[in-house]
Amino acid sequence: MNIIVAKDYKEMSQASSRMIEEQITKKPDAVLGLATGGTPLGTYKELVRSYKEGRADYRFLSTINLDEYVGLDPEHHQSYCYFMNQNFFQFINIDKKNTYIPYGKTEGLEQECRRYEEVIDTVGPPDLQLLGIGENGHIGFNEPGTSFDSETHIVHLTDSTREANARFFESMEDVPTKAITMGIRSIMKSQKIILLASGERKADAIYQLIHGEPDEQFPASSLKNHDDLTLIVDEDAYKKVQRKG
Ligand SMILES: N[C@@H]1[C@@H](O)[C@H](O)[C@@H](COP(=O)(O)O)O[C@@H]1O
């Protein structure tokens, strides 16, 4: 595992966008695995800047997102589809038909999971997967206890994850209770993985990721079995590692 400790959120975002840009420069038709949440927003901002300044071209790029809420229309303001358009896709020259996000509004959820895993296997697997991390160690929406052998599946969100995401909704009742997520095995199919973490809120999770053994009770620890993992964290998220060594 490579670890890059950035001074703050901005430097963390710059370091991750640089790695993504290198990937696209090397392979313009690369496939990127993308994440939502607050953490990667700065990275998307930097990538938009690169496009505007003529340093990045996304014409041939494909993207595969990690997850989506069940029951939300893609146009819903809190859907991850909307998030990606609002924060990234609308500002760059990506071909929208090459952007993949699970469809959460379907009646046939199991079928949607199988379809999505096929997308990962045929369009992807991603050359590079960007990840955030939940305070309880979740990646995508893979909550503690998820099998390391899991592929795309439906999850019941834990109260702690719903609470952490409630800030984006009008009230806690509006936060969906289920989501479709790439599984741990699906995520591990990527060639390279970058995991981002910022802020003291993530310090315990980063400590456990670095020092713990792979354990299904802490989903991010599965990544320790990947041979090309880079953690990019800011000093606040790295605080506990630094303090305890
Ligand atoms: N499904 C997403 C995850 O992909 C994300 O990593 C996590 C952390 O979010 P944040 O980056 O806002 O802390 O939130 C959600 O649960």
Automatic annotation (TrEMBL):
Q: Name one Pfam family in it.
A: Glucosamine_iso
InterPro entries xrefs: Glc/Gal-6P_isomerase, Glucosamine6P_isomerase, NagB/RpiA_transferase-like
Question: Which GO terms of type biological process are on file?
Answer: carbohydrate metabolic process; glucosamine catabolic process; N-acetylglucosamine catabolic process; N-acetylneuraminate catabolic process
Q: Does the keyword Hydrolase apply?
A: yes
Instruction: Give the coiled coil ranges.
Output: none
What is this enzyme's class at the first EC digit? Answer: hydrolase
Q: Does the keyword Ubl conjugation apply?
A: no
User: Can you list the GO cellular component terms from the UniProt entry?
Assistant: cytoplasm
User: What Gene Ontology terms describe what this protein does at the molecular function level?
Assistant: glucosamine-6-phosphate deaminase activity; identical protein binding
Segments forming domain Glucosamine/galactosamine-6-phosphate isomerase: 12-227
Pathway participation = Amino-sugar metabolism; N-acetylneuraminate degradation; D-fructose 6-phosphate from N-acetylneuraminate: step 5/5
**Reaction(s) catalysed (UniProt annotation):** alpha-D-glucosamine 6-phosphate + H2O = beta-D-fructose 6-phosphate + NH4(+)
This protein's UniProt keywords: Carbohydrate metabolism, Hydrolase
The UniProt entry annotates the active site at D67, N136, H138, E143
EC number from the UniProt entry = 3.5.99.6
NCBIfam families given in the database record:
nagB
Give the record's family classification. Belongs to the glucosamine/galactosamine-6-phosphate isomerase family. NagB subfamily.
Main function: Catalyzes the reversible isomerization-deamination of glucosamine 6-phosphate (GlcN6P) to form fructose 6-phosphate (Fru6P) and ammonium ion.
Q: What is this protein called?
A: Glucosamine-6-phosphate deaminase
Which organism is the protein's source?
Answer: Halobacillus trueperi
Gene this protein is translated from: nagB
